Amino acid sequence: MGIIVINFKAYKEGSGKKALELAKIVEEISSKVDDYIAIAPNFLDMSEIMKAVDVDVYAQHVDAIEYGSHTGRIVPEMLKDIGLKGSLINHSERRLKLADIDFVIEKFRNLGLTSIVCTNNVATTAAAAALGPDFVAIEPPELIGSGIPVSKADPEIVRNSVEAVKKVNSNVKVLCGAGISKHEDYVTALDLGTEGVLLASGIVKAKDPRFALEELVGLK
Amino acid sequence: MGIIVINFKAYKEGSGKKALELAKIVEEISSKVDDYIAIAPNFLDMSEIMKAVDVDVYAQHVDAIEYGSHTGRIVPEMLKDIGLKGSLINHSERRLKLADIDFVIEKFRNLGLTSIVCTNNVATTAAAAALGPDFVAIEPPELIGSGIPVSKADPEIVRNSVEAVKKVNSNVKVLCGAGISKHEDYVTALDLGTEGVLLASGIVKAKDPRFALEELVGLK
Amino acid sequence: MGIIVINFKAYKEGSGKKALELAKIVEEISSKVDDYIAIAPNFLDMSEIMKAVDVDVYAQHVDAIEYGSHTGRIVPEMLKDIGLKGSLINHSERRLKLADIDFVIEKFRNLGLTSIVCTNNVATTAAAAALGPDFVAIEPPELIGSGIPVSKADPEIVRNSVEAVKKVNSNVKVLCGAGISKHEDYVTALDLGTEGVLLASGIVKAKDPRFALEELVGLK
Amino acid sequence: MGIIVINFKAYKEGSGKKALELAKIVEEISSKVDDYIAIAPNFLDMSEIMKAVDVDVYAQHVDAIEYGSHTGRIVPEMLKDIGLKGSLINHSERRLKLADIDFVIEKFRNLGLTSIVCTNNVATTAAAAALGPDFVAIEPPELIGSGIPVSKADPEIVRNSVEAVKKVNSNVKVLCGAGISKHEDYVTALDLGTEGVLLASGIVKAKDPRFALEELVGLK
């Protein structure tokens, strides 16, 4: 099937012990389905999760800098070093300057890390695609955390994003996000031409995350 | 000939009375040549310059916001209201987030203002072009204020930018900047396929700005 | 009586022609009362207002920089140069880094400009006072634009701010803001030990700004 | 003796395996002296270091937010959760807004975490002290990474900072930093009234970090 990336954000339900539990659930369900399910926990939890769980781990953000005199920053090479698969870049809650998005994508290309650039509309999706990342993830900010799935509420933005990306750089793959939690919304996202979905609260803040994830992938 | 946009920056030599004097010099020389010469003074000097001088005036920056509860910000509509021609957007000294660049370009399109998006390399030039601004101005940051003209030091970045823009959106025009002050560098910029140049210190901080500008346009 | 500073923000009702009209109303009402009434319009409108009206004009913001290669920024010296009285600093809609607040206050002291540092609680009020500005303006962010006057909703924060400032640096004067528009709230603010009020929407977005201001100063 | 906090920054020499090695060196030397030696590695390395080494670990930065929909951010509670001792706050390479410094200090007080607020001059030191953190660390930015020790180059700024803090809030302890790497500079810092030093490159980028640290604490 498709790709599912779960952003743990700075949710209490997605940090510390809960993050590890959630990662284990993802690992378990991953083994039962064909979907590729990856997670993006916070920086502090990554090391332990990666030792305990066989799931691809992404950062939620990375700074557009080289090793050096930077305090409180994370360098792309550090992600590689610790064994991360890649990173979300330019999430709507962590927007980056254009030049910095480009810096990180280019750096990731050289490091063999996977870049997932989040965008807010068709125009910025096309612009991001022009930078040649691995993925663009279109997420209308007004739908993030709304519970209203983008694939149902605004299929045009998804379809047009897929088309715009094809025109600019057909090597770039498209994800979509915002409000997705049900299996049918995930399937619709794939039908609209995306490779998968980026989600957060629908799983992480679900009363029963295991059940929510099983439902998403169609096991329930 | 071509287009010349002079960024007054926050130079002492380009603010207050000096800004007005400089604007008058631009007006005078403008009338003697075919080149389109415009200026981008700071916000405080615009109103007076626009009353005194018949030259197109651009802002150096504008905020990606609507009218409302924002303190210390400038709304795109305010630029229109006061009679500005447009604005520089995303200058290397005032980088914007991708979503904000898109917001301003889209807003300018509706308001009939001219958008000049500054970029730092071929990749970001292509990305900016995908957003459909009027102009992209490629300026390698390491050459800004260096006195080393981009058109001589790095003709490839200019040529490749022009080509990349053509591929992405052929309606977008290209300027280049950084280190330009001599007539031959300006001519080279045009030969490389740009519509003109964006410059600052080469004129504004010149010992004799009138002479420097006359030299640039080939009157000396 | 006291001090009234009216922040025009980026309100449509406080920019362009409306800004000039409002400035004239302030000038007229100023002449009828003992209160000191000043205004803080946006950068683009200042020059014209200052020529047309005899009212002290403040900036809403200023950048913590020296003259130089800064695009889209306003240097403290530029405010002095154009004849401004001073500036709001660190408004809740334009928060600054601690080191930058200090830079601007120190610069203003040397330039003879008046610094009004906005703060959000008693602790930051004390901290700002330690930097030695002319004024600290305590504004609980949750009340800004609410129509609920801080002097009524949270008199303790005002009283404690006044006391905290006295302890740290008794030369610093205190204003308060947020939700104030009625005469009695203004009077209460003075009774709580402040020198006056900072306000915005209560006047600028009032159906009849003249009436609102007359009411504020007790003429109605 | 005193307090030594070693900021690993985003140095290559202070991340990944090198970070762990360095932490072990600190643990070992710590056991031989009376000085309190703590470290501030990057977020990704903390978890492993804390399992392997018995040394107090601080964050280099923390975001001024609550648990919730924030991507790529670290919440104060997460630091507590993972067992950190506290955090540097407002380092010159990661300056914060005044209101955010206050937010973190207040949050740390409730969580029992140790707050070390970095400042750049006597005025900001006094302002930071007014917020009631555990420590203020005065570091003139121009000396950071310079190899010129603040305690020798500018003893007045240290002495005056200590005095200013005493006046504002005598519970706040003072560290100083910038350019320190020699034992005598550390001793001078203590003689000037500080509780210790904050340093980075002098140890982390030393050819032989063990030797450098032994020298700092007077074992060589």
Descriptors:
homotetramer; 220 residues; alpha/beta; TIM Barrel; 8-stranded parallel sheet; 10 helices; 8 strands
Which helices and strands occur, and which strands form pairs?
The structure is a homotetramer of 220-residue chains.
Chain A: E1 3-7, H1 17-30, E2 36-40, H2 43-52, E3 58-59, H3 76-82, E4 86-89, H4 98-111, E5 114-119, H5 122-130, E6 135-138, H6 150-153, H7 155-168, E7 173-177, H8 183-191, E8 196-199, H9 201-204, H10 209-217
GO molecular function, one term (chains A, B, C, D): triose-phosphate isomerase activity
EC number (chains A, B, C, D): 5.3.1.1
Function (chains A, B, C, D): Involved in the gluconeogenesis. Catalyzes stereospecifically the conversion of dihydroxyacetone phosphate (DHAP) to D-glyceraldehyde-3-phosphate (G3P).
Describe this structure in words.
By secondary structure, chain A is of the alpha/beta class. The first copy, chain A, has one domain: Alpha-Beta Barrel (TIM Barrel). Chain A is 43% helix and 16% strand. Chain A has ten helices and eight strands. The first copy, chain A, has helices at residues 17-30, 43-52, 76-82, 98-111, 122-130, 150-153, 155-168, 183-191, 201-204, 209-217; strands at 3-7, 36-40, 58-59, 86-89, 114-119, 135-138, 173-177, 196-199. Chain A has an eight-stranded parallel sheet with strand order 2-1-8-7-6-5-4-3. In chain A, strand 4, helix 4 (98-111) and strand 5 (114-119) form a beta-alpha-beta unit. In chain A, helix 1 crosses helix 2 (43-52), helix 1 (17-30) packs parallel to helix 10 and helix 5 runs parallel beside helix 7 (155-168). The first copy, chain A, is globular. Chain A starts with a strand and ends with a helix. The model of chain A has no long low-confidence stretch (mean pLDDT 94). The A-D interface holds A 7, 9-12, 15-16, 42-48, 59-61, 63, 65, 67-75, 77-79, 81-82, 88, 91-94, 144-145, 200-201 and D 7, 9-12, 15-16, 42-48, 59-61, 63, 65, 67-75, 77-79, 81-82, 88, 91-94, 144-145, 200-201. Chains A, B, C, D: Belongs to the triosephosphate isomerase family. Chains A, B, C, D: It holds the Pfam family TIM. Chains A, B, C, D: One of its GO terms (molecular function) is triose-phosphate isomerase activity. Chains A, B, C, D: Keywords: Cytoplasm, Gluconeogenesis, Glycolysis, Isomerase. Chains A, B, C, D: Homotetramer; dimer of dimers.
